Amino acid sequence: MKISVIGCGYLGAVHAAAxxxxxxxxxxxxxxxxxxxxxxxxxxxxxxxxLPEILASAGAxxxxxxxxxxxVVAGAKVxxxxxxxxxxxxxxxxxxxxxxxxxxxxxxxxxxxxxxxxKSTVPVGTAAALAARVAAGCPGAMLAWNPxxxxxxxxxxxxxxxxxxxxxxxxxxxxxxxxxxxxxxxYATALAAGTPLVVTDYQTAELVxxxxxxxxxxxxxxxxxxxxxxxxVGADVTQLADAIGHDARIGRxxxxxxxxFGGGCLxxxxxxxxxxxxxxxxxxxxxxxxxxxxxxxxRRQRVVDLVTELLDGQVFHKKxxxxxxxxxxxxxxxxxxxxxxxxxxxxxxxxxxxxxxxKAIPNSMRTHPQLAYTExxxxxxxxxxxxxxxxxxxxxxxxxxxxxAGLVERQLIxxxxxxxxxxxxxxxxxxxxxxxxx
Length: 438
Ligand SMILES: NC(=O)c1ccc[n+]([C@@H]2O[C@H](COP(=O)([O-])OP(=O)(O)OC[C@H]3O[C@@H](n4cnc5c(N)ncnc54)[C@H](O)[C@@H]3O)[C@@H](O)[C@H]2O)c1
Ligand SMILES: O=c1ccn([C@@H]2O[C@H](COP(=O)(O)OP(=O)(O)O[C@H]3O[C@H](CO)[C@@H](O)[C@H](O)[C@H]3O)[C@@H](O)[C@H]2O)c(=O)[nH]1
What we know:
This protein is an alpha/beta fold.
């Protein structure tokens, strides 16, 4: 099937390449000329494991093309909208201007029977409004909502073998049947493999997405709240998480306490959901999400406070090695990154911050040129008065405490991701502080 993807960022570029890998003819359109020129040359414009491989293999098969010209989408039967929906400047609501612009650019190239498929994360009610615009702009064209659940770092596998697929279909039965048939063809491989499919209306599909992210954020802030309590009484939140996680109704995943959640999704999605609920007069139903956000942001401050405490309040002109910049390992994404936030706060207190990250330095340098960066872990650690680990890249998890001890000025470490073995570090002479670990 001929497919177009509008918006080729962390979601859209992977979706385009994965759909081509599955045998579809795919064209990608984006207004970002750097991203498009990289993708057109078969290169990934950001770090995502497996993306270079599928770009190369799908490109070699000839089923994948990219352009900054919206006319490239003409002739495709299914058009995925995957543009950004960031937090609006100065507010909590989602900024839908890119979605509106994408629909405007798409409409002149639609033909009757075409299906526009929303993938971006949007406030509930958006799909119905866009469907009306699509129908007015091209009578006979349809819209479906098909939220995306991929995780960065696992985006290719999550796209090719998702754990579920959700279709939000038009209310009109004939349109719903046509839309479903087209989506079934797009996802034939995953459906044949038995991937669970939920077929529903627009508003449920939109809500599924934000509810899933709200639940994940709640799980993380729940365990971070337990970390705060643990800190008061000398308990160990990692053991607490193991113990409650053995209950299958709770589960151990997403119970890792630490510096909290960041990225281009969880933080802005819970805020946009809150704003939308308030617009609907239902703010009280999810008022707890404000607390989830507040707990999350407090953990960033806690890491900064622990570093300050270890340095006896004397942060000024002390060298602090910050291990990690991306919001999670296996990604170069620094959107709302707790790690970068900690680095900036420490710098603001006068520390001589030297940050190291395997992939996120170029992005960080662009947005935060005031920080000092190094590609070498050894350079970051040499002469450091304190070490703070804020993104649990394998290279940091595997550090040998005795080797690091030989590099630093003082053996003080804050493990902002609870990913190191406290006993091993303490045995090597370190003052170790985790998050909610006594
Ligand atoms: N990144 C993820 O893991 C992920 C997962 C699920 C859902 N989502 C949702 O998907 C959407 C995209 O997220 P992302 O992380 O890929 O963002 P992103 O910023 O990496 O990519 C968005 C892309 O859209 C492009 N764009 C903006 N306006 C455009 C226009 N008018 N026409 C064509 N292209 C345009 C931008 O240039 C950019 O390349 C968001 O709604 C996000 O919440 C993201
Ligand atoms: O136990 C945990 C698990 C995660 N995190 C943090 O939470 C953030 C988000 O992690 P993750 O959810 O793995 O990354 P994303 O790639 O942002 O994926 C989320 O956001 C996407 C965009 O909406 C969704 O598609 C995914 O399903 C959803 O997991 C990161 O900063 C993690 O460090 C924790 O602090 N503790």
